[in-house]
Amino acid sequence: MASVHFRPCPHCQLPHEVGLKACPMTGGALFDTETTRRAVVDDVGLVGSLLDDKYEVLEELGRGSMGRVYRGRHAKIGRDVALKVLLGDLAKSARVRDRFVREAQATGRVDHPNVVQIWDVGVTADGLPYMVMELLRGEPLSQRLDRERRLPLADALIVARQVLAGLAAAHAADVVHRDVKPENIVLVRRDRVKLVDFGVARVLGAETPAITQRGDLIGTPGYFAPEQGSGREIDHRTDAWAATVVLYEMVVGELPFLGGSVVEQLAAIVNAEPLWPSEVRPYLPASLDRVIQAGLEKDPDRRADVQALLTMVKDLELELEGVNLRDTADELPAAAGPAPERGERSKELSDTIEDDGQSVLDTIDEAEGSA
C-alpha cells in the first residue's frame, strides 16, 4: 500500500494530505506541488513551503527591515532551525544581497557559544536568498530592559561577560560587529547569552564589495563611538565602546549620552562626559566606574579593547562575590528628569542612510525629518 504524506495547513493548522489544492476546512489555497511546492497565498508568506527540498517552513517568528525569520525544520534529520529570508524588492537589490551574504560569511567565521551559529545559505526557487541559523529560544535583552528598565549588577555582569567573550572571538576572526545593542543580544537562558545580527559586520582585510557608501551611517546612534558618529574609520574598538554602553544601560537604566535629537546625541557622545554609574546609583562600586571609563574612552587609541574589558569584568565579578549590594528600584535623581522610553533612547537610523555627498550632519538631519 502506498504511503500517504501529510503537511500542516497554514490556514487551520491541521495536517492535510500533500497534493490538496485548498484547505478543506477554510477553502484557503494550499501547495502547488507540481511546481515549487511553495505556499501560493501572500498573507502566509512562506509558511508551509519546503525550501530547497530540505527545510520545512513551520511558522513566522518575526519581521525586520530586510525580510522575515521563520521557524523551520530540516526535513531529513528533524532539527528545528531559524530561517532568515530576504523578501520583496530587497531580494533584487545587489547591494542588499551583498549585505545578506556578508552577514552569513561574517557570522560563519565565528565559532563561539556566545555567537549565533549559521549552518547553511541558499536561494529559493523564486530567487529569494535565505540563511539557516541556530534557533534561539529566549528574548532580546531589549525586551527585558523594556520590562525592568535595568538589571541587578550580578545579572548585568553575566550578560556583559558573555557579550565581550563573543566579541573577542569575532575580533580574533577579524570580524567587527558594528551594531552591538540590546536588540542584538539574546538572553537564551538566565545564564546564557547569544550575540546576533552581523548584518552590518565588517570583515577586516577582506577584499569584498563595499556594502556602504560615503555618508552612510551604520548602526544605532545611542551606541555609536565618537569615531563612528563622526564618520571616521572604525574597527574592533568601536565594538568595545558599544558593549560598554550596553553595560552602562543595564546597570543605570538609561544610556550614558542623551539628546533631544540624533545630532544632539552624537554631539554629546563626541564632547560630553557621562555621569558614572556610582554617581547615579550610589550603591554601585567604584570598580564598576573604572570598567565603564575604560570602555568609554573617547580616544580609540586609549580605549580598552574587548579582551581587556572582559578581564576587568571577570575581576569585578570575583571582587563582588558574596557581596550583598543594595539594589533598589529608586528613580534617577530628579535633576536628570524622567527617563525616556527605550524606543526614544535608542532611536535607529534606517539600516544605512544613503546620500549624494552631503556631510554626515546633513545626512542625520534628513533621517530625522523622514522619521
Walk me through the structure.
- The structure is a single chain.
- The longest helix is centred in the middle third of the chain and has 20 residues, at 153-172.
- It is built from eleven helices and 13 strands.
- It is an alpha+beta fold.
- It starts with 5 loop residues before the first strand and ends with a helix.
- A six-stranded antiparallel sheet has the order 3-4-5-6-8-7, covered by helices on one side.
- A hairpin with a 6-residue loop joins strand 1 (6-8) and strand 2 (15-17).
- The protein has helices at residues 94-108, 141-148, 153-172, 226-229, 236-252, 262-271, 277-280, 286-295, 306-320, 342-345, 360-370, and strands at 6-8, 15-17, 50-51, 55-63, 67-74, 80-86, 118-123, 129-133, 139-140, 175-176, 185-189, 192-195, 202-203.
- The protein is 32% helix and 16% strand.
- Residues 1-5, 31-44, 203-216, 328-340 and 343-371 have low confidence and may be disordered.
- It folds into two domains: 47-135, 2-Layer Sandwich (Phosphorylase Kinase, domain 1), CATH 3.30.200.20; 139-370, Transferase(Phosphotransferase), domain 1 (Orthogonal Bundle), CATH 1.10.510.10.
